[in-house]
Amino acid sequence: MALKTMPFDAAEYLTDGETIAAFLTEALESNDPSEIAQALGIVAKARGGIAQLARETGITREALYRALSDSGNPELGTVLKVMRALGVRLTATMVA
């Protein structure tokens, strides 16, 4: 009998602000722009989807899909608009 699997969807587990903040913090600490963009896309999906995010940011759906994809490389202005719409913000800490 073959093992039956289902695709993993991280958005299903991002159910509260604390979990979302921890998820995005991990992505930001990776220092990998594509991982950060992808994480923002996953949070957007968990918080109502790209269409909702497009309405809140004023950025087209297509541009958001491109920017927040695996190969996306969004501009800082786009990242800040997306984060504001998602209810999160960047903070700076000194690295030892």
Keyword list:
mainly alpha, 55% helix, single chain, 96 residues
Instruction: List the domain count as a whole number.
Output: 1
Poorly predicted regions: none
- What's the number of extended β-strand segments? 0
- Strand residue percentage: under 5%
- From the N-terminal CA to the C-terminal CA, the straight-line distance is 53 Å
**Helix-residue proportion:** 55-70%
Helix- and strand-based class? mainly alpha
Radius of gyration based on Cα positions: 14 Å
Major β-sheet profile: none
Q: At CATH's second level, what is the architecture?
A: Orthogonal Bundle
- Give the ordered list of helices and strands: HHHHH
Shape: globular
Mean pLDDT figure: 92
CATH topology, what is it called? 434 Repressor (Amino-terminal Domain)
CATH domain class: Mainly Alpha
Q: Helical segment tally?
A: 5
Walk me through the structure:
The protein has 96 residues and is mainly α. It has one domain: 434 Repressor (Amino-terminal Domain) (Orthogonal Bundle), CATH 1.10.260. It has helices at residues 17-29, 33-46, 50-57, 61-67, 76-86. Helix 2 (33-46) packs parallel to helix 5. The longest helix has 14 residues, at 33-46. The chain starts with 16 loop residues before the first helix and ends in a 10-residue tail after the last helix. 20% of the residues are buried.
